[in-house]
Amino acid sequence: MEHGRxxxxxxxxxxxxxxxxxxxxxxxxxxxxIAALSEFYKNSKRKVASIINDIFNLNISVGSISxxxxxxxxxxxxxxxxxxxxxxxxxxxxxE
Length: 96
Hints:
The protein is mainly alpha-helical. The protein has one domain (26-95). It contains three helices and two strands; from the N terminus they run E-E-H-H-H. It has helices spanning 28-40, 45-56, 62-95, and strands at 3-5, 12-14. Strands 1-2 form a two-stranded antiparallel sheet. Strand 1 and strand 2 form a beta hairpin. Helix 1 (28-40) crosses helix 3 (62-95). The protein is extended. 10% of the residues are buried.
């Protein structure tokens, strides 16, 4: 993505992402794997970076993993809460 300032007039220039493309660096699968390795399996951020590099040949910094686990943790919690509510509804319907 190109962004910056015009030299003479100092106006900002930036390009927009195509429709359907998110500004995230990593996709939902990579985010989920990183969240699982660090949160559920309690690996250190350095260990997660090493595992991701070994398995997927993806060089990712410890800082990126830290940022992903912070933001993705809340997304995962929200999805788990929705799944638990849906499961409860199914259980209640099956008892009737």
